[in-house]
Inverse folding.
């Protein structure tokens, strides 16, 4: 993985450990597609749980593995804008309960008893894991000064 630019004030791994959405960009016959998804960053690889029924991005990966991914953390109250963009290759892999569990814990917490039923005991025949290996990464801090709030009297 080539880190082309890194102006983040935090380490890349720390940024990608946050429970943020990634935006998966792919080519399709009818034009470009973007899918907002949960993800897990582990050992330089992005993992995404891919539901096979009713989702088109797993099929697109099989047709064309070239993939781009964006992750943005934006807080208008503070002016924080941090962005990581990746380009790489994606593949559809077998469902792995351990990897999927780590991904879901990032968003739902470690107490699985508190998870919504839709995320518990996923059927490995109905899901796969999308593995994205980034070839290039751009990590940018594009933050700006916080705007004044009504309490500031501005």
């Amino acid at each position: 993985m080539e880190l082309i630019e890194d102006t983040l004030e935090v380490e890349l791994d720390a940024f990608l450990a946050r429970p943020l959405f990634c935006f998966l960009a792919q080519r399709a016959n009818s034009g470009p597609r973007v899918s907002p998804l949960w993800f897990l960053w582990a050992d330089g690889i992005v993992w995404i749980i891919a539901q096979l029924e009713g989702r088109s991005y797993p099929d697109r990966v099989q047709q064309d593995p070239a993939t781009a991914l964006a992750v943005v953390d934006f807080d208008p109250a503070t002016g924080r804008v941090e962005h990581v963009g990746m380009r790489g290759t994606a593949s559809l892999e077998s469902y792995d309960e351990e990897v999927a569990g780590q991904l879901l814990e990032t968003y739902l917490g470690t107490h699985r008893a508190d998870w919504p039923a839709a995320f518990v005991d996923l059927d490995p025949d109905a899901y796969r894991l999308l593995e994205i290996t980034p070839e290039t990464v751009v990590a940018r801090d594009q933050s700006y000064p916080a705007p004044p709030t009504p309490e500031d009297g501005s």
